[in-house]
From TrEMBL:
Molecular function in Gene Ontology: GMP reductase activity; metal ion binding
Name of protein: GMP reductase
Organism: Elusimicrobium minutum (strain Pei191)
Recorded catalytic activity of this chain's protein: IMP + NH4(+) + NADP(+) = GMP + NADPH + 2 H(+)
Alphabetized InterPro entries for the sequence: Aldolase_TIM, GMP_reductase, GMPR, IMP_DH/GMP_Rdtase_CS, IMP_DH_GMPRt
Assembly: Homotetramer.
SMART domains: IMPDH
């Protein structure tokens, strides 16, 4: 048995050090970059923020808004081939390109058949292949198979947390490796299995490994605020996948739930009496893709040999997603001026981090 003694950090363990810079305004920075991939010959211009391929966030509705800002969406894998084809057709007509969209796949024969059906239409070129444990031989074999069948497609594959496996996936046909095991907001893998790695350290190691062999990474999970997205770009992420930060919006899947509760208020009638009042709060359901809730929804229950590695939560309804997207992009722009990076691609080169004990003042919540 071996123990790695190096300190492993999460986004909350570090802060960016501000630097003297010649950038005087946020409008001087360029948050777009041109992505030039290892295998896929097509180039894409955009900002590497991506909606997670969860059934709550990898939705057609979210994709339509994300692409307006040249941001990406990995559609969840529970859409049927017919639903995907219809959406991709309409989207291509209206938006001219499906370049900001990935279709998702597991590694089963059924998944492959669906990919074949959709790819045959030539409406899409981007495929996200993910399994909870990217160290399984099934993933690498599946990546090889998809690469052989579609030499020019853009393949994102994962999830892993180490440099060696990042390189393996890239050398075997992936363009982007999705990294992160256990950092997700509704993930319980670490609780259940004890497996995982703090995400900030994962991003540093895997991006370094990926860039060394001409590939890229997508930092998947663990961002809770715009500042975490900034830290992730600075740590070397080419793409950043967000679940929880994009959940609970109008465009996220699921109904808005109304909860009525009783609270007390002081009546301002001179002698200040307490009165009971009814108030309403609005929520949306958000759940891990391997939670019992999701397994019930999509597979008719939890299989005996499978454990639930995700949870179900109700989160406050947050209205339209556009506001959240703008706040995230605003945060990135601002961080770039703080660290002196004119282009988003320069963020890692410009960034210096402090290791901190406490990053936020939580006195008012
Ligand atoms: P978040 O942005 O919410 O922190 O993380 C989103 C990521 O959590 C997803 O992209 C996916 O990788 C991961 N995830 C989603 N559902 C589950 C689940 O049920 N179990 C685990 N272990 N991870 C999940």
């Amino acid at each position: 048995m071996r123990i790695y003694d190096d300190i492993q950090l999460d986004y909350c363990d570090v802060l960016l050090r501000p630097k003297r810079s010649r950038l005087s305004s946020r409008s001087e920075v360029d948050i777009e970059r041109e992505y030039d991939f290892k295998w896929c010959p097509l180039k894409i211009k955009g900002t590497g923020v991506m909606a997670a391929n969860m059934s709550t966030t990898g939705t057609f509705e979210i994709a339509k808004i994300m692409q307006k800002y040249k941001l990406f969406t990995a559609l969840h894998k529970h859409y049927t081939a017919e639903e995907l084809i219809k959406f991709l057709k309409d989207n291509k007509k209206n938006f001219k390109t499906n370049g900001y969209i990935f279709i998702s796949s597991g590694v089963s024969e059924e998944d492959y058949k669906k990919i074949q059906k959709v790819m045959k239409t030539k409406l899409i070129n981007n495929i996200c292949i993910d399994v909870a444990n990217g160290y399984s031989p099934y993933l690498i074999n599946y990546v090889k198979k998809v690469r052989a069948a579609y030499p020019k497609c853009l393949i994102m594959a994962g999830n892993v947390v180490t440099g060696d496996m990042t390189e393996d996936l890239l050398l075997n046909g992936a363009d982007i490796v999705k990294v992160g095991i256990g950092p997700g907001s509704v993930c319980t893998t670490r609780k259940l299995t004890g497996v995982g790695r703090p995400q900030f350290s994962t991003v540093i190691e895997c991006s370094d490994a990926a860039h060394g062999v001409g590939g890229m990474i997508c930092a998947d999970g663990g961002c809770t605020v715009a500042g975490d997205v900034c830290k992730s770009f600075c740590a070397g992420a080419d793409f950043i996948m967000l679940g929880g930060m994009l959940a609970g919006h109008e465009e996220s899947a699921g109904d808005v739930i109304k909860r009525v509760y009783i609270t007390t208020e002081v009546e301002d009638t001179g002698d200040e009496q307490l009165k009971y009042v009814l108030k309403e709060k609005y929520f949306k359901k958000f759940y891990g893709m391997s939670s019992e809730y999701a397994q019930d929804l999509f597979y008719g229950g939890l299989k005996k040999y499978r454990a639930s590695e995700g949870k179900l939560v109700e989160i406050p309804y947050r209205g339209e997603i556009e506001k959240t997207i703008l706040a995230i992009l605003g945060g990135v722009r601002s961080a770039m001026t703080y660290v002196g990076a004119k282009r988003i691609k320069d963020m890692p080169k410009c960034a210096t981090f402090y290791r901190v004990n406490r990053q936020l003042n939580t006195v008012f919540g």
